Amino acid sequence: MAPRNLSVSLVFLFTLFSLVAAHEGIGDSAKYPIVVSTWPFVEAVRAAWKAVDKGFDAVDAVVEGCSACEELRCDGTVGPGGSPDENGETTIDALLMNGATMEVGAVAAMRYVKDGIKAARLVMQHTKHTMLVGDRASAFAISMGLPGPSNLSSSESIDKWTRWKENHCQPNFWKNVVPVYCCGPYQPKDNKGICSETNSMGIVESRRSLVGPHNHDTISMAVIDKMGHVAVGTSTNGATFKIPGRVGDGPIAGSSAYADDEVGACGATGDGDIMMRFLPCYQVVESMRQGLEPKLAAKDAIKRIARKFPDFMGAVVAIDRNGVHAGACHGWTFQYSVRSADMDDVKVFTVLP
Length: 353
What we know:
Layout: H1 3-24, E1 34-38, H2 42-53, H3 58-72, E2 92-98, E3 103-110, H4 116-126, E4 131-133, H5 134-143, H6 155-166, E5 177-178, E6 187-188, E7 219-224, E8 230-236, E9 257-260, E10 264-270, H7 272-275, H8 280-289, H9 294-308, E11 314-320, E12 325-330, E13 334-340, E14 347-351
Parallel strand pairs: 3-4
Antiparallel strand pairs: 1-7, 1-13, 2-3, 2-8, 5-6, 7-8, 9-10, 10-11, 11-12, 13-14
């Protein structure tokens, strides 16, 4: 073959490979990598960025970022030492999802083990299950090498719980029970109990006294790595003063987070008991799959919840496979953090309700 013909053939083959690689989401891209997280958890985003910029895959970068937030006890709502339940105990919910394989690992109501996101990764890597819960999740995590058992409470969480008890366990997550304005044990409302006369009007307390940025600000993080693969992860110690055994949206795939390499990803935060009924992140990703841009997909998911529960507080952040991101919220002002190759450091975006 003549040298000129050989050169033309090589150029053709290189062009063909480039087109196939782009179509399959393979190879480096100016759009990638990128890290997105709920709330101004800047150090967590920096940790994830440091990992993914070094060449870590999306799953490992998410673990690095969420682990940093657990260690820092972000806002007291992630990791150990925060959000005591009715018994004063802190428990952990976490989720990890691989958007390339659609594998999920999660732990819920996990006691005595502080490393929620690493436990979720162990579930994904070493079991054929999706979620482990409670004491059995703890035993599994410890058997697989994570530190424990440990007391996850802190002086701050115990002080918070003590003040709550002194305030007659108000506010709380019970309804249609007596007593109303006292601590339990509780019984169904038809049974008479002490303090029951104080709620003779049957007034239902607004959930806004139970939900706010400092007791429901789950970290939900999405990473697109240099190869264009997507992963998401969440970690939280749940709702403050929750009824023991409660599991929120944090470990529920499609609710707190969802990822699909073909489309993009979503992260959510807020009143998980309400939001998990709508699977907002699954909705966001599927809306983007149908052609909606991230901003419209995020707004649509939030509106679906607000139509049924106008008093709810929550937010989602969406990112498509091209790195375009946007957020939407209801009931509060929401912030999310981003780090990409064209930024010198993490940037925080503010979203108004």
